[in-house]
Design goal:
The complex is a heterodimer. Chain A contains 14 helices and eleven strands. By secondary structure, chain B is mainly β. Helices cover about 0% and strands about 50% of the residues of chain B. In chain B, strands 1-2-3-5-4 form a five-stranded mixed beta barrel. Chain B is globular and about 35 Å long. Classes of the chains: A alpha/beta, B mainly beta. The interface between A and B is medium-sized, with 29 and 29 residues.
Chain lengths: ~400, ~90
Amino acid sequence: MKKLTRDVCIIGVGMHKFGKFFDKSLKDLTREAVWNAIHDAGIDASLIESAYFSNVLAGLVTGQEAIRGQVFLRDAGFEGIPIVNVEGACASGTIALREGMLAIAAGLYDVVLAVGAEKLYLDDTARSIEAMSTNTDVELMGGLGFQFTGSYAMTLRKYMKEFGWTQEHFAKVAAKNKYNGSLNPYAQYQKPMSVEEILGSRLISWPLTLYMCSTMADGAAAAIVCGKEVADSISTKQAIVVAACCLRSGEVTGDDDGQRHVARDAYEMAALGPDEVEVAEVHDAMAPGEMVRIEKLGFCKAEEVGRRVDEGYYTLTGKLPVNPSGGLAARGHPIGATGLAQIAELVWQMRGEAGPRQVKGRNSRYPTIGLAQNTGGYVEGSPAALTVTVLKTG
Amino acid sequence: MKEIKLGPYGVLETFTMMQVGASDFPPPYLMGYVRTREGALVFTLITGCEVRDDALEIGQEMELIIDKIKKDRQGNNLVGWKFRPRRETTAS
């Protein structure tokens, strides 16, 4: 894995709350997240030289198939600058960040905007549900009854058989993330839930129950990205360095579906190992999926993950807090915004701005190394797009 | 990259019973992954057994059949592959 030739950092992040907003359009969601990020960085918006816009389903749910970024960012006040539309299903937000990072590392720009927005609650929710099924190969999988909840269920069933994971472990992870979400003002679900309530909720696809699963959401998230050497001259905010932001596509013929490979790429690029990560945001459209990510990212061997869940290892006060934001199932999963919401959470945690859900660093007051893992879509047998991002302070 | 010829037999890698279906697929139904003898991993609907979560086991032998998948919007049957538990009498 080669290195970037220029250090890239994040100086501002912003979100629009995730949830159900029948009275707001994609323009409203986008505008609020973008301007929250600009105000967070404290920069003059005219410094932004290019933008990377992530959205997955607006074409199918609103009809705005073409020029999405140009439409939604014009409303937010942008004209003239180049805008690139990015799509990679649930990983789109991270891919937008990566495109921005690459453009800065290439020396083309000093300051760019990465933004992700999704609007799924509209008059016809059946249309949105149908649209979500296009995150697969629609001929090979959508046409054969494939459904994402079932995909997670099938993966978890294998781990249960091989490594002793139980439905109770899964409910504990979901309860942890519901609690974290209850402390996050941007989260869709802000109500803590007990293990018993989660286990007692409706069965969706064994071992998954309703309260372990994410639902539809509206929302947006944005980041202001810049060359590290210019950060101090334009913003007073602590610059958080993008030490790695790696992208791969899924694999089916080897012993890895791509998840381990993209993690290895990110650790190499960031020149650090999984044991050094102090806080992580991982992709858990169904909360127990967090345990699979923990194993694939190399944080822990599969046979030990269950015990660590029992010990509270991944809670806000645990040795390695995972999904302090609440993760996808509690914070919400507006598909194209999720990747950048993970990044926003890491930035807040590393700056010490996460309020009641703030986690500690191992050797300093706040975490100095954060990791975000985000996957998108499904092509038969593997995730379609896989990303891992590593952020560092200083 | 190479061409391989696939036979009808494989082993059930994992499966689940859907209690909430994809559109056009009324629950409950069974779906899973079968690893064919030649090594290909195939997503499939599962038929030929009771629609119950304990009707199948990871690792059991499966065989491919061609069967009705669903109806299209005009009411025509769409046909595709499915797997079912391998029947003892089937010759390999």
